[in-house]
Give the backbone structure.
Amino acid sequence: MDDILRVENVTKRFADHTALDNVSLAIPRRSVYGLLGPNGAGKSTLIRIINRITAPDSGKVYLNGREIAPEDVYKIGYLPEERGLYKQMKVGEQAIYFAQLKGLSRREATDRLRTWFKRFGIEYWWDKKVSELSKGMAQKVQFIVTVLHEPELLIFDEPFSGFDPINANLLKDEILRLRDQGATVIFSTHNMASVEEICDHITLINQSRNILTGPLEQIREQHGTNIFEVTFRGDRERLKQALGERYAVLESHEPEEEALSPNKIKITPREDGNVRDLVSLINDNVEIRSFARIIPSMNDIFIKAVAGQL
Amino acid sequence: MGKIGLIARREFNERVRKKSFIITTILMPLFFVGIMVLMVWIMTRQSDTVREIAVVDRSGMIAPRLTNEGTIKYLPSDRSFEELRDEGTSDGLFGILVIGENIMDDPRVQLYTYESSTVTIEESITSQIRKIVEDEKLKTYNIDNLDQILRDVDTPISIQTKEITSSGETRDSSSVLSMAAAYIFGILIYMFVFMYGNMVMQGVIEEKSNKVLEVMVSSVRPFQLMMGKIIGIATVAITQLLIWVVFIALVGGAAINYFAGDAIDAAAAMNMAEGGMPVNVDPDAIDQAALLSRLTDMRYLLTMTLSFIVYFIGGYLLYAAMFAAVGSAVDNEKDTQNLQLPITIPLILAFIVMISAMQDPHSQMAVWFSMIPFTSPIIMMARIPYGVPSWEIALSIGLLYATFIGMVWLAGKVYRVGIFMYGKKPTFAELFKWIRYKY
């Protein structure tokens, strides 16, 4: 898989602080790439550099293997975190205006907009003023404006903020559909649940540095704990006894939880053991209904990484 | 269409469709007419409080011949000054005029007033007494038919000024008209630069606080954004001006026809009869005719309109760039006051200098300030009605537009940094630092 975008050793300093310190990353084509990090980590600065809104002090950005150039803005669609539309302008007219600034002709913009408005079921918004729309509605319009010129690279900064779950789902499906059609999506967020749902790759930026990068599944595997969760039918005590010295049973801190689900147990090997042995041991004593290794959520990884515990 | 064009077109469309645009476009001329009517009314209004002045005339020659002038009434009195004074203001007197016995040889009179006297009253008194004394003195020469002669001699003079142009032709000039034109054009430029410059600033602040800029800058360069806005609002201004010009031409034309038909005929006659003053025309009508012949002189009107447009656009562009830079640096309008100072000070200074330039359009100060780009649009517009050498105009326009280009370049640098600065109120030192930022 080739990389659509490469950021190499980018550093950006402002008067009183360093926003990015020697950050490098490569974004595979047709991926959904999560750009994570706490507030003020430097994500927005990095996105602005990719968008050529500001220039780095040192380092380079390559799009399709060539250093990024002014006309590349047409290949990028950018949905900033701060949504902005002219409040007094009508929705349709405004969308056409932004599309024209992105290089579409008026007719083409109108045709595409009609299609998108139909898909989102918002045709009747066309002649409304933006000030008449709710925040979520305005964001839908803004999303359409961002993707309308069919750029190969899409950059979404916190795209789900302000959306109800139904619309967030709609948006998620659209993002995945755009990826399937060939677009690459950079996706900046602190919402880890959405990262797990749609990102293929992530980079975690903290304190101006890239501290964690790679395919999502790989990262979760790497930071996987050695804890297994088993649900079973059978005698809990007998199972505990059978596990004996080699495995530790993690007792829940809350007794009610155990009472509620007496047939669920968390096990971790005391020494390196192989999973097969564990499964057959359990299988000999109880009837296994499910067996799973607990993979940490992105949320846990994020918090640990930021706290410097990885 | 380029991006600047697209942005300018949006600015134009949005602003021209606004209700506020339509309302100001209609109301402004009415407002102006109202102001002018008010000014004329104030200037021509005579104070309506009657001022009664008791005249104690020891010579007995003057008092009977004083005539009431406007609201000033002379009441010859046969009582003494002391009696009158002791009675005080109970009669509602404004004052007491005392004329000595020997007024012919000692031409001094005293005016005692209960409140401070005015120039008008003093002039009325001195001029009337002077005339009476003159007449009396003439009488002592025993000239026959003196009354007849005196009536004959009394001639009101009407002055008709002609200007010799560089090509040696003469044309009517009217200093009243020049002054009025200087004043009106100077004020118009001042107002419009302020008004439309402010519009640019508010537009930038609105885009910044709406976060529209964040969306825009990914597809447009900040400089294009700024220029698009400035040019777009300039087209709005020009549209509005044209509407007003048409409106004023129609209404003014109709009014002149209605009120001053005779004077127009006289003016036409004057324009026809090269140099000669038509006889059989009332001198007042000639004054008006001189004014009107200037007003109906197409070349004069065209020069004025053209230079107004050139100076308005130049001045607007220069100041709009500065207004845009200030707008980009702040989060809301409240924070603009400090930063606006360097914009408003030259404008206000220009306005002050304009008043003196109107009186002496070729003074050194007026000439210099009509060259300095920050004041030249206002000062030069105030000078042009009096006639200014073309090289001066050319130089001043050249300087103005060159400075505009430099200013746009600087403002663009501030703008580029400013639009991403949130949350703090910048100082001048910071604005200058932004200019040097490398992007």
Observations:
- Chain B touches chain A at residues 3, 6-7, 10, 14, 18, 207, 210-221, 420, 433, 438-439 (CB under 8 Å).
